[in-house]
Amino acid sequence: MAAHDRDGPADQRGAVLDLVLELALLVEEDMTAGLARAGLTKARAHLLFEVAQRGPATQQVLAAALGVSPRNVTGLVDGMTATGFVTREPHPRDRRATLVTLTAHGRAVAERLVAGRGEFADALLAGLPAARLAELADGLGEVVGRMRALVAQEGAS
Amino acid sequence: MAAHDRDGPADQRGAVLDLVLELALLVEEDMTAGLARAGLTKARAHLLFEVAQRGPATQQVLAAALGVSPRNVTGLVDGMTATGFVTREPHPRDRRATLVTLTAHGRAVAERLVAGRGEFADALLAGLPAARLAELADGLGEVVGRMRALVAQEGAS
DNA sequence: TATTGTTATACTCTATAACTATA
DNA sequence: TATAGTTATAGAGTATAACAATA
Q1: Spatial contact of A110 and A52, defined as CB atoms under 8 Å apart
Q2: What's the pLDDT tens digit per position in A97-146?
Q3: Can you give chain A as a three-state secondary structure string?
Q4: Is residue B38 a contact partner of residue B109, using CB atoms and an 8 Å limit?
Q5: Which residue among A13, A27, A28 places its CB closest to the CB of B121?
Q6: Of B20, B9, B71, B23, which is closest to residue A131 (Cα–Cα)?
């Protein structure tokens, strides 16, 4: 117990870190599985949401928004065209460009996934007292802030 | 303000969910970047840790432990042999099998990554008062428990 | 006959470089 | 000359099915 007391703070941080890592893993698994049920991968869902928010967009714009190469967007759009989520429409004023546009199915799936967030939040958090939620929001906010700083710092170097 | 008050609990859950999702994304990015600096991918690091914990293991065992196909393990071991993290050693009693074994480099990198967890925990959490940490551990524990149940439930259906 | 690992094939995400059509 | 998107090529993760060697 003495050693445990001495290492208390580090142990506690380690325990919280373990929870954060496990949570990240579980969220990723759950999300990937849910998207697969909708016929999507994470990369394609990302593109779907981007188009849903912006409206029809060129592949260059999408590449920049997603942080991937233009070539990669070609592949994603190819797949999502074959599976009926988007179409390539001619750009009205630039014949080099195409406008990636949602199909009715793509729009419906995007809306359904966004709506599903509420259910997900309930499954994770319903029944927790407001005080408990507030604590979590505070603590997570702090941790997320530090993570953002870490990632930004490493991205810069 | 009235509508805001009425939707309070759902809003609060939505806010916490956003934090959880952002945290999962940031952790994943940071981890992927860190592993890349060590010459590893997530899949290869997973295999590395598994071998570090178990000692030399057959590819079948590793496939089961990682939850991937045996064929996939062949590819991972091929890559990690080429990059000097592991070797294939003959199984002493079963000439069909190979024992995936860490090289000195593989062992060193595994130890370095495990040690790096402490620094990561500090970067994320150092300076937070013990009470704050305890709250976080409680809240995250609850959320992780529910996530585990969710994933298990979906995996079963 | 069952198991271990590999070859064969295929799909997805990712990247760079070279090329075409258009600005 | 610069830009949009594609073809070409390549590496990594993932899967199933067929096959060899061995149990």
Answers
A1: yes
A2: 999 999 999 999 999 999 999 999 999 999 899 999 999 999 999 999 99
A3: CHHHHHCHHHHHHHHHHHHHHHHHHHHHHHHHHHHHHCCCCHHHHHHHHHHHHHCCECHHHHHHHHCCCHHHHHHHHHHHHHCCCEEEEECCCCCCCEEEEECHHHHHHHHHHHHHHHHHHHHHHCCCCHHHHHHHHHHHHHHHHHHHHHHHHHHHC
A4: yes
A5: A13
A6: B9
Tokens of A10: 């580090």
pTM of the model: 0.91
- For residue B100, what is the enclosing H or E element? strand B98-102
B36 touches chain A (CB under 8 A): no
Assess contact for A89 and A102: CB atoms under 8 A: no
Measured CA to C1', the nucleotide nearest B41 is D12
- Give the chain A residue nearest B120 (alpha carbons): A17
For the segment A8-27, what is each residue's pLDDT rounded down to a tens digit? 788 889 999 999 999 999 99
State, as a whole number of angstroms, the distance between the CA of A119 and the C1' of D21. 52
Q: b or e along B106-134 (b: 16 or more beta carbons within 10 Å of the residue's beta carbon)?
A: bbebbeebeeeeeebbeebbeebeeebbb
Nearest nucleotide (CA of A97 to C1')? D4
State chain A's mean pLDDT as an integer. 93
Q: How many Å from the CA of A59 to C1' of C7?
A: 38
Look at strands A98-102 and B86-90 and give their pairing.
Answer: unpaired
Q: How far apart are CA B34 and CA A39, in angstroms?
A: 31
What sign does the CA torsion over B48, B84, B40, B108 have?
Answer: positive
Residues near chain C strand, CB within 7 A: A 41-44, 66-69, 71-72, 75-76, 79, 93-96; B 58-60, 70-71, 73-74, 77, 88, 91, 94, 96-98
